[in-house]
Amino acid sequence: MGDFTQQVKSVYWPESRALIYLALPICGAQLAQAGMSVVDVMMTGRHDATSLAAVSVGSSLWMPLMLFMTGTLMGLTPITAHLLGGKRHTAIRPAVHQALWIALLLGIVAALLLWSAVMPIFDLMNVPPAVARQSSAYLSAVAFGMPGIALFQALRAFSDGMNHTRPALWISLVGLGVNIPANYLLIYGGDGLIGLFGNWVPGSLQRLPALGAFGCGIATALSMWTMALAMAYYTRIGSTYKSVAIWQTLTPPQWPGIRELVVVGVPIGVAIFVEVTLFTLIALFIASFGEVTVGAHQIALSFTSILFMLPLSLSMALTVRVGNTLGQQRLTLARQVAWNGIVISVIVAVINSIFLWFSAVPVIALYTSNSEIQALALSIIALAVIFQLSDSLQVNLAGALRGYKDTRIVMVITVLSYWVVGLGGGHWLGSRGVGGMVAPLGVHGYWIGLIAGLSTAALLLAWRLQRISIRG
User: What is the mean pLDDT of residues 422-429?
Assistant: First the structure.
């Protein structure tokens, strides 16, 4: 008992504090970036219904692209963490530069796709012509920001790997601070400013046109480039980065560095893309069940997605801590760090479940006053309470494995668990039922499928972490 108490004092408690210290700023940054999407929807919704639909449809196209880029560039975090832990500071700069080259390439490709491929997609989706035109204009503006957000994510991954997660929080808040007034100015134009400030608005600003969804896209691109430039400036002047000096000289593209980032990062990007498409496809399947079901599903998903930010942030911090320890060649400690993080993720899941259960009724009432939607959303949240544990476990197990640079197996497990078990099982239960014994369960069947998929992922990832942490 004494040895265990000593181990808690010497390893687990200090490590828990370090993990939480890293995770909380990451959580704030995630919420700030999510806030930009909320602001876009709220402000275009107040302009007109077509603009709102255009931004909503457009976001469903550029967000998966951005998340794939973000996931791929997250591969830089464990690479940096390993090098930092091993005190190989001179190797960090070329690794960051290779990530920046990849970020620039990914951003340009994403921009080209948004400029050239959206109208054929809208035709396939049978999007109304007015919505398609405005959404295309919105995406053409957002496209200019894609290289910027890619560069920001690369620099953020570097900073996180250096155990410095707070800059991403402050710079994300700066991006949100640019997004709100830019949205107001560009979406509503001069009339909006007059409504807000009256005759105090100068004549030149009064004549500004209301650009609607297109203006929202310009504001989004401005925010993306503001965040990129701010992060570049901070990594140049910040004392934490002096030992690396990434802006001293620029390393040209080098295949070994690019290959390492691609091998580690692309599976992360694919795994995140698979997760996004899981929820997108479920939403499409549920659409046939009617407005009440769609509304209840979206409310439950929105609420649980906010709570998921903390487990997600813990997983990103856990990648850094495991990577740092492995870089120091302390394999036994790395194993302890990884499993300590998993224990904390269970505690967070329990707290989230309790909060979700007791706050469900008042929170649902904030979303809608429709009693049918409220009742259905509450029954869905009862299922969401159950999957908090498996969801928190699987994302943190994946985070620990990324610290080991073990990402390809994580990708395979994610694809099988999410698409085969989660989506396939959910569609089977929701639309077909179980033979002749159980009728189709509708939206509840899809959520049961989610629980099954996340639980399968958690079990397989735990098995993988157990094997790889023993091997080191």
Answer: 88
Where do we find the tokens 């989610």?
A: 450
pLDDT digits (tens, 9 = 90+) for 267-286: 999 998 888 888 777 876 77
* pTM greater than the 0.90 cutoff: no
Based on the number of CB atoms within 10 Å of its own CB, is 63 exposed (0-12), middle (13-18) or buried (19 or more)? middle
CA atoms of 287 and 108, how far apart (whole Å): 34
According to the model, what pLDDT value does residue 202 have? 64
Q: What letter represents residue 152's amino acid?
A: F
Distance separating alpha carbons of residues 269 and 410, to the nearest angstrom: 11
Does 21 have pLDDT greater than 80? yes
At 110, the pLDDT band (50, 70, 90 cuts) reads very high
User: Per-residue pLDDT tens for 434-457?
Assistant: 666 667 778 888 999 999 999 999
Q: How far apart are CA 42 and CA 36, in angstroms?
A: 10
First to last CA, the chain: 27
Average pLDDT of the residues of the chain: 87
Confidence band for 303, pLDDT divided at 50, 70 and 90: confident
**Cα dist. 378→38, 194, 295, 350, 374 in Å?**
23, 42, 12, 19, 6
Sign of CA dihedral 243, 328, 392, 283: positive
472: amino acid identity, one letter: G
